[in-house]
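Design job #97: recover the sequence.
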């Protein structure tokens, strides 16, 4: 009886090994390695694309102007900047609904926003052609040639004190700045952030929060501040998530 059971269990074991061996054929292992390589390539590509978040550029009128999209979809209507030159800021990287195409969400100095293709090195090609020019940072904070320094500082303070969500400890609402302080104390010890304000017109400003250490890549949040009404409105998706 014992020998019979032993032979039965050995048969099951051999059959299992045979099935496992069949399930990991050389072709299947090759396919698995190819899929892993593709996933790694996509991760590296996305990380490289996100390095442009927070950078400023200038659109210049040329014979082959840069084209922007109204929405991050393939069939979205395209448009070009009609001014002789227009500055813009890359605020985040988004994908279309199918997840097959990457776009930069950009905000122009005029307040208009749009999407620029982030695939196929389109940005780099347009820089080489001269229709887009990179504008290096000056290192000055809170200053904008078209807006008084006092207005910029006021806009930044309004964003810092802007109430975004409930504080589970106190029961009251939490400000943007307090949320950052608590995030560093509780979850992200290396969290760093700073603010920058740029004028849109004499009553409105855009405040940008540059953040490092909260995710694997830097984050950029933007708000529109109505200085006359002292009202603050989240502009990009990254800022909107703070309210959830």
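Job complete. Output follows.
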């Amino acid at each position: 009886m014992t020998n019979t059971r032993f032979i039965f269990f050995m048969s099951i074991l051999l059959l299992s090994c045979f099935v496992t061996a069949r399930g990991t054929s050389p072709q299947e292992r090759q396919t698995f390695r190819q899929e892993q390589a593709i996933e790694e390539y996509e991760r590296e590509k996305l990380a490289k694309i996100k390095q442009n978040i927070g950078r400023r550029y200038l659109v210049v009128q040329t014979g082959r102007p840069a084209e922007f999209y109204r929405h991050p979809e393939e069939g979205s209507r395209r448009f070009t900047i009609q001014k002789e030159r227009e500055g813009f800021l890359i605020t985040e990287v988004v994908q279309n609904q199918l997840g097959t195409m990457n776009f930069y969400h950009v905000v122009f100095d005029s307040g208009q926003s749009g999407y620029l293709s982030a695939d196929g090195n389109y940005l780099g090609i347009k820089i080489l052609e001269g229709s887009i020019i990179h504008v290096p940072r000056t290192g000055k904070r809170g200053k904008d040639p078209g807006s008084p320094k006092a207005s910029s500082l006021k806009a930044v303070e309004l964003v810092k004190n802007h109430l975004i969500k409930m504080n589970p400890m106190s029961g009251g609402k939490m400000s943007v700045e307090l949320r950052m302080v608590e995030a560093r104390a509780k979850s992200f010890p290396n969290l760093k952030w700073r603010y920058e304000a740029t004028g849109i017109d004499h009553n409105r400003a855009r405040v940008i929060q540059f953040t490092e250490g909260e995710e694997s890549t830097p984050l950029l949040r933007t708000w529109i501040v109505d200085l006359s009404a002292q009202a603050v409105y989240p502009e990009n998706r990254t800022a909107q998530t703070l309210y959830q």
